[in-house]
Prior knowledge:
By secondary structure, the protein is mainly α. The protein contains 9 helices and 2 strands, in the order ααααααββααα. The chain has helices at residues 7-16, 18-29, 33-50, 58-61, 69-72, 81-85, 108-112, 125-132, 136-148; strands at 95-96, 99-100. Strands 1-2 form a two-stranded antiparallel ribbon. β1 and β2 form a beta hairpin. One iron/sulfur cluster (SF4) binds at residues 51, 53, 56-59, 113-114, 134-137.
Amino acid sequence: MELERNLENIAQMAKVKEKENSSFQSYLKNQDTDKIDAIAHRLNDEITALIDCTECGNCCQNLRPIATNEELRVFVEPQNIEKFKYLEGFQCKNLKDKKCTIYTTRPEVCRLYPFLDRDKFITRTYGVLQNYEHCPIVFNVFELLKIELGWCVENTSVK
Ligand code: SF4
Ligand code: SF4
């Protein structure tokens, strides 16, 4: 599979593959946790090495509100907090020309994103799919996972 890096294509395919992904999500629930974690972690390492986040920055342009106003202050100017709290996605104030201006001191949540090195992948697919439409790393890992597992949409009721 050729890696997909085009953000418009990824957003488009996320819509087209909505039912397919939901079916794959159900399939994953019955798989061996450790086996899926091992594959997902390896794919994450491989794909992350091939995708340049400084050419993307899409996660920083599609933030979802997080719990407290104090936490939001890191990403939003104080006067805009109430406005951004109710949006589905917004751009972080620290992003300039697709680059993080506080990269070396960025919050831990930014360092951990897109969280694919965590365990128990099969219990976290809801969150993974939320990031799938925005993040080329997540998109490609999820698609390659289908291939590695030999999962085929033709064998499901989706089609
Ligand atoms: S602090 Fe930096 S890495 Fe985190 S969301 Fe903002 S721009 Fe992105
Ligand atoms: S983590 Fe994903 S969405 Fe964020 S910059 Fe890297 S490839 Fe883009």
